[in-house]
Please model this.
Amino acid sequence: QVQWTESGGGLVRAGDSLRLSCVASGRPLTSDSKAWFRQAPGKEREFVAAVIWNGEIKYADSVRGRFTISNDNDETSMNLQMNSLKSEDTAVYFCASARGLYPASHYTNASPYNYWGQGTQVTVSS
Model:
């Protein structure tokens, strides 16, 4: 079992930056894919970014060029650097990991992800 714990959320102004971190307890594998999702009030959970088991990195169109996902070559942690934040980035952000070697296209959906954190709130004021 793997349990992720997010940190780094908060209240910022539009244009500011935040760095979210996530740390695992348990036994993540180097081959696990890792991702960030977010859920805004009244909306479904949506994909933000992922580091896939084959080394590929994916971003949602809405964050590409502003957000950067990393794991520092450490299977027990992952980060999300968020720059040029917008009010529409306001959401609860979740980190997650997936065990299994699916095609890369699968990892922009929540279904492959086995382990999730509890989420951290990011609020961007305009």
